[in-house]
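Membrane peptidoglycan carboxypeptidase
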Amino acid sequence: MVIKRTLSATSRFAPLLRAGLIAGVVVAAVAYPIVAVGGIGAKKGAEAFNDMPRQLNVKPPAQTSYVYASDGKTLLTMFYEEHRKYVPISDMSPYIQQAIVASEDQRFYEHNGVDPKGIARAFVANHEGGGVQQGASTLTMQYVRMAQRDGAETPEEVQEATEQTSTRKLREMRLALAVEKQYTKQEILERYLNSAYFGHRAYGIYAASEVFFSKSPKDLTLVEAATLAGLVKAPTEYDPATQDKLAATARRNYVLDNMQKMGYLSPQDNAASKALPIQLKLSTPANDCVSVPKNLNSWGFFCDYLKTWWAEQPAFGDNASQREDNLRRGGYKIVTSLDPNIQNIAETNVMAKEKSTSKFAHGLVVIQPGTGLVKAMAVNRVYSLDQSKNGTHSDPAKAAKIKGNYPNTVVPLLGGGDMPGYQAGSTFKMFTMLAALDAGMPLSTAFDSPQRLVSQYLGEGPGSCGGRWCPSNASGAMTGRHMMWSGFGKSVNTYFVQLEQKVGADKAVRMAERLGLTWRTDVDQMMAKPPRSKTWGAFTLGVSDVTPLEMAGAYATVAADGQYCEPLPVTSIQTNDGKQVTWTNKQGQTVDVAKPRCRQEVTPDVARAAADAARCPTGGKAQTGSCQEWSTAPSVTPTVGRPVGGKTGTTDSTRSAWFVGFTKELAAASFIADPDNPFNAVGDAQSQKPIDSVAQTLRDSLKGQPVVEWTPPSPAIVR
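Structure:
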């Protein structure tokens, strides 16, 4: 039988569709006309229809995660696979609501999810045309398809949701009828507009408005709304960002004409709108750390640390892959700990000492004692993957093959990644001093400290004598009798080796671990394990690799009266529905994932005693003992202008130089070294740079804040 495209033919199918008797036949004909010609019985179609799922299981679609500075306003970057942000329909321009209905489903407000007239009309057209000439999907059915696509977890489920088959059409019809009973028309329209794909990786109207017009959906004009609505049918074919906008303009005008037919526009407004050219204001939304704004480029290193931290958190998945996937799909609002003011201060001070074109990396990390919040991560490098114009690699063996990591790099030079770090020299004496104080030795513990000491530890090669390790001091002026104050202030090696021998090298190693240090190289891991750690005499002189992030966190423990807090890059993480993300800690407690993770590692008295001795290297005066007549960083206290402690550190031949300093409010660790070639010495002349960078950053960051005095240690620990 030849079916003519007449009103009678259309009306002939409508009652049957409403009864659910011929749905299978019509849908099969719409999708594959040859199936209709072969003949599918009405009974078989109805049975298939009735066997379909009756409830749409909607999973939240992937949404973009937004990362902000500590002010909650300054955007660092975003993470997404599909750029999308859910917005309520009340925050959408009425024009886009009208335009999408005019473009995709003019009978949207009349049908109940399945449009009998539309299906019958498409059936007739497809049958007469010998192929698929018209679709029959209502806006509700399209939403069902998108919801199934977005909820798919396997490639097979994606294919099932989008394949061109009569089975898929039947399933969409059944589910569309259910959706219309579950949601109002406005709720369906809202969900549709938040799911539709508009091209350029923009999913949903929020992303589309941002990508094509750099504005929010509520601000879309009539012409802009009609342009976006026209994209849904074929985003590539009607892309207005192409050089030739003819197809996009024709499609926009089609939408405008339909809006007039539906009574949304007057003929005059339609004509005036069609006369206007499509004017885009394209933007490429940031994605990942390499998209941090150029004027905030240094924030990329902090962003990279945030990603590393995120990948370690069980709150976001069972493994690193799941956690990164959730970051890109979860729609989180992440407020970081990064303080824009302190970050700017740190970067200014670092860059003033060493330019980005230097092969030597000079960096600084600032942490808040008592919380572990990472306030700044600055380094004299440009965060970029492009190394095409980088300098020559400083390792002669590699210079002919690869570029150096300066000025451009994404290597985690400051910590938080897989880079082992740098030897930190005498800054490690803090761990020996804390271990001794923790073991009951008072600040007044005294040793006669010669220029060279024959230690109890075995040793071979340079620095050994008679099969023993024989460390020496940097200067003959250090020779004499010292207690912890002057031994720390002058950085007397032979004093601290004797202190380490008395308390046990393994105790110093364990103290470093308690304060957040980890061992990344094979040698460090071997030496740190018992019983080998008992023989690691050189540990107190800082022969292990460590990062500025770890050292700032360790010294912050002293500033916080012995409370160690894990370095933390966030202050708040909310899901897309505004709930704080939680996790279950080792104690089985459910806590906010952004809550500081602190533990009391040494008593307040031990920490206060160490802090008192730590005033000596900075040119200050201890509250309870004598620093003697000189120190290794005498400029720090005058620069900071408030109570401050710290410690210098240099390695053999000054291959690296460090300073770690702290007030009660902030702790900062700075270094200078060649990360490409650790054997490339920076030289003694460079050792003042970390000292100045820390002192000036502490001073500038705390400007205008009240001076916080330190509580002195008890007489029992001074003696």
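The CA atoms of residues 195 and 204 lie 5 Å apart.
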